[in-house]
Design brief:
six-stranded parallel β-sheet; single chain; about 725 residues; about 15% strand
Length: about 725
């Protein structure tokens, strides 16, 4: 019993998300339990035990952590089910094996003239050639908002039909299917309806319209619009059936917009990453050129484009929720009065109800809502003039050539005249012009809401003149991008720092941890003054940095494996370095140094410290040498430029004596071995001079003649002196 509960809980978690956490399984286990006679603590312990058991089953496959996305706890491990992994594997395998297989292929000589005759830009023309002329079993077309996806599909569908193929249009929602039918010119319905018809195909009578519509052969082309919102399990059933009959499958959508609601998703992005996609990149929807480029920045999460929206007056910062709601409604009213088709959008149903209440109150005051009121089971009052939006398909309620669909906008004409059984209802007409119908009281109570405003999810794929959205903290990039790309002539955001308290918009995708944005009073208390514009910018930057899209289980598994390989390589590198250090230390410790070795090591360490000191001394010596060289050059320069000083003559000496050679010996013998120089000596000369004997002129030997006397050299000649002779 425990294993069965665990298996069912894991399957339920996997059918809500392709990749889930322990918290998701815990919620499913708690929903399955019937705690009779257990205390709160016992229930909690039992839930945790069964959750642990469920995560240990073979159906549960660990896929690592969560690299991005909106999750209750980003640190929790992530898991996927075998069911989802096998479904994804079949789709990827069929797509790879069906490349260039001739599926739904229109010969290029027939296709190219047809495509050239249509008003297509270069990207659209190329996409038509790839879709209709490529021959792949599974083709993918991705396009940002306003890139002309509808026109491209219409051109491709016309080419297939001219070549003899049967085009079947499908979409996750009835509204999207209706828009696809308008684009292709044929019948389109929901993917769920087609799969259900396929399931009961054998029960349908031969020749029935549904049997023909759901039938498959090699001349069938299946187009699934808004494929990013289609469940992986539904896409698996569709591609498997198409492969059995050699039909072609075309998936169309934008992975950057809102994904699947309450189901495993991420398959469209996985196919794009494996190279199966054609893409459109030129924006046509917006009338202003700057907004075409800026919208692509919102799509990729580029924060710099916010400056463009701010400069164009598209961002409106409000101090609180009521001011923001009033601003959205006032802007919508002014646009409607100017004759423009305007959309009021919000992320949660609580905010949508608040906007609808403001719109209805104004309509009542202006006299646009009158007549008797019909009170539904949920307490809402309905009168003639009310706008109504449906929230569920009902094929038993005919409307024009179709039926009441989820997302239809209707105007109330009045109460149903037939109330014999005490059951009240409403007569309504379709705003799209499909006619009138009657809504019974039970449908009115459960699946109808006021229709002036809309959730962003319901508005995906819609186009109007002006789009106006309420933005709170906690919005993700995909919802912001969708909301700011609905209007052709303008898209405006009214921002409040107040977080939402509504968890109903979760749709099984989890909510990010919302931190309230500090208000002006809060930041002033901390000494950090912040303007409303700065607060609004922080809200938008946080939205652009947060992705709410799902990863396919294969994508998460591939990412986890790549991260594991990288971590293993890093761990191996670190371990190798640690081992090298350990070996070096062990080798060092194994040595037994001798006393001489120890002394040499100490000497080596000391010498290793000396180069720094020697380098400093060398630098100082070089500086001194450089200074000396400078001094020498300056001294030589001064000598070279100095003129020689003429000698000073003595008045008592005739000029002729200047040419005479001084005698070889003095004329007056000295009275002692040393003699005193005349008083005419300059100051500083030595008072005693060394003597040497005179040489004999005949023998060259020293003479001992008393006549010769000792030799006394005179002072050197210099400026201001005579030749140095003794007088």
């Amino acid at each position: 019993m425990d294993v069965a509960w665990g298996f069912e809980a894991v399957r339920a978690a996997g059918q809500r998300r392709a990749v889930f956490s322990r918290a998701d399984v815990t919620g499913q286990v708690a929903a399955l339990m019937r705690p009779s006679g257990l205390t709160a603590g016992q229930v909690l312990a039992e839930v945790e035990r069964l959750t642990t058991l469920a995560l240990g089953l073979t159906e549960t496959v660990p896929v690592g952590g969560q690299p991005h996305g909106v999750t209750p706890r980003a640190s929790d491990p992530r898991f996927a089910t075998q069911q989802v992994l096998q479904a994804e594997a079949r789709i990827l395998s069929l797509a790879d094996r069906g490349r260039r297989g001739g599926y739904g292929r229109v010969p290029l000589p027939d296709l190219m003239p047809h495509a050239r005759a249509l008003p297509l830009d270069g990207g659209q023309y190329k996409a038509v050639l790839e879709l209709a002329g490529g021959g792949d079993f599974l083709s993918v077309l991705t396009a940002p908002a306003g890139a002309g996806k509808t026109r491209t599909l219409g051109a491709a569908a016309a080419a297939w039909e001219q070549a003899g193929y049967r085009v079947v249009g499908l979409a996750p929602s009835a509204r999207a299917a209706a828009e696809l039918a308008d684009a292709t010119g044929g019948h389109a319905d929901t993917l769920a309806k087609w799969l259900h018809t396929r399931y009961r195909l054998s029960q349908l009578p031969a020749g029935a319209h549904e049997r023909t519509w759901a039938g498959l052969d090699d001349r069938t082309v299946l187009i699934v619009d808004e494929a990013s919102m289609a469940s992986t399990l539904d896409l698996d059933r569709l591609t498997t059936a198409a492969a059995e009959h050699a039909a072609k499958v075309v998936l169309v959508g934008d992975p950057a917009q809102i994904g699947v609601v309450n189901g495993p998703g991420g398959m469209l992005a996985a196919l794009v990453h494996t190279g199966h996609a054609s893409s459109l990149d030129r924006i046509h929807r917006f009338t202003q050129a700057w907004e075409r480029e800026a919208s692509l920045g919102l799509r990729t999460g580029d924060r710099t484009v916010l400056a463009a929206y701010q400069a164009e007056g598209r961002l409106h910062a409000c101090p609180d929720s009521d001011t923001a709601l009033d601003g959205v409604f006032k802007h919508w009213t002014q646009s409607r009065q100017a004759g423009q088709d305007a959309l009021m959008l919000a992320r949660t149903r609580v905010d949508v109800d608040a906007l609808n209440t403001r719109a209805r109150t104004a309509a009542v005051a202006d006299g646009h809502i009158t007549g008797p009121a019909v009170i539904a089971g949920d307490g809402k009052e309905w009168q003639a003039g009310d706008l109504l939006r449906t929230r569920r398909n009902n094929r038993s309620l005919p409307l024009g050539d179709s039926h009441v669909r989820n997302g239809d906008r209707l105007r109330v004409l009045g109460p149903r005249p037939d109330s014999t059984a005490g059951e009240q209802g409403l007569i309504v007409e379709d705003l799209a012009g499909r006619g009138r119908t009657v809504l019974p009281a039970d449908y009115l109570a459960e699946y109808c809401e006021y229709g002036w405003a809309s959730t962003i999810d319901a508005a995906q794929g819609a186009t109007a003149d002006v789009g106006i959205v309420l933005v709170r903290p906690g919005m993700d990039r995909e919802h912001l991008y969708v909301a700011m790309t609905r209007g052709r002539h303008g898209n405006h955001a009214y921002l409040t720092p107040d977080p939402t308290s509504d968890d109903e918009h979760d749709h099984g995708n989890g909510r990010p941890p919302v931190r309230p944005v500090p208000t002006g009073a809060d930041v002033t208390a901390r000494g950090q003054e912040a303007t409303r514009e700065e607060q609004a910018r922080r809200v938008l930057e946080a939205a652009l940095a947060t992705s709410g899209t799902q990863d396919a289980a294969h994508t998460a598994l591939t990412t986890a494996r790549a991260a594991a390989v990288t971590a293993a390589r890093q761990a191996a590198t670190i371990k190798a370095a640690q081992d090298a250090v350990t070996r070096a230390r062990q080798s060092e410790a194994a040595r037994t140094p001798t006393p001489a070795h120890t002394t040499d090591l100490q000497r080596l360490r000391m010498l290793q410290q000396q180069p720094v000191q020697l380098a400093q001394l060398d630098a100082e010596i070089s500086q001194v040498r450089n200074r000396l060289e400078v001094h020498d050059r300056e001294w030589n320069a001064r000598r070279a430029t100095q003129a020689p000083t003429p000698r000073r003559r003595t008045a008592a000496v005739p000029d002729a004596l200047e040419t005479l050679t001084p005698p070889s010996r003095p004329t007056t013998p000295p009275t002692s071995p040393t003699t005193t120089r005349p008083s005419t000596r300059q100051a500083g000369w030595p008072t005693r001079w060394p003597t040497r004997p005179a040489l004999d002129p005949r023998t060259g030997a020293p003479s001992r003649s008393p006549v010769a006397g000792p030799y006394r050299p005179g002072p050197p000649a210099g400026p201001g002196r005579d030749s140095g002779r003794s007088r």
